[in-house]
Sequence to fold (128 residues):
Amino acid sequence: TGGDVLSEELPYRAEKAAVRLKPFLTARVVFEVSDSGDKYLFEWAEQGPKVSNLGKKASVKVNEDEMSVEDNSLRVDTIICLSERSIMAIRSGDLNPQIGMLTDKIQVSGQISPAVYIFNVIAPRSRS
Fold:
């Protein structure tokens, strides 16, 4: 499922890519899965990358100056809203994340660069 990709595979793959991607993945990123309503928080803590399931009831607040998770007043840098189908298509390589952003299958609020780097972690690596 998309939740498994975000909560299990993403931290594992981020840890493996730590040397080259860690400088670009230090942001706090909230994933909103549009069809289920679940929200996940990705952050790179001292012990490494982790993803927390915020559940369906977590409220993400966006205003001109900042974005935050209202339940715990945690500032976030990027909010990514996408369907479970899009998560699975990115993971399988059937959806290019940049094309997904251009065609509104993926909506990104806040900083764009953390989203691009996170999608590089989720997408399969090409075997050239």
Remarks:
- The chain has a mean pLDDT of 89.
- DSSP finds five helices and eight strands in the chain.
- The beta strands are 29-33, 39-45, 48-55, 60-62, 67-69, 74-76, 78-82, 106-110.
